[in-house]
Amino acid sequence: MSEHTGLSEGDYGVLDRLVLLGEGSLRQQDLAESMDWDKSRLSHHLTRMEKRRLVTRKPLETDRRVQVIITSVGKSALDNARPIVSKAIRKHFLDQLTDTASCNTPSP
């Protein structure tokens, strides 16, 4: 995926969840759970994403939890990647289902 979008699958998953589940931000623990990643894996991945300015993290004022926030750079990268990812899903999965379904449909 990265050669076409500049995002790894993990990057895309993080950014997509931030927008779809959290309207741009999620608690780090909630993000980890939604991706089925352990806290350490997500933390390391977010560090790499922060260096590329795709996300920022900030501590919540109410407790020790951390909020992950998509940046304008991250939102732009996600918006640019979505049509490419959609096309790949269509080509590699949906079109295959359509071909299989039409092959298994009895002739009238």
UniProtKB/TrEMBL annotation:
InterPro entries reported for this sequence: HTH_MarR-typ, MarR/SlyA-like, WH-like_DNA-bd_sf, WH_DNA-bd_sf
Protein name (record): MarR family transcriptional regulator
Superkingdom in the source lineage: Bacteria
Domain HTH marR-type, residue spans: 1-102
GO biological process: response to stress
Pfam families xref list: MarR
Alphabetic keyword roster: DNA-binding
Gene Ontology MF terms in the entry: DNA binding; DNA-binding transcription factor activity
Native species: Paenibacillus rigui
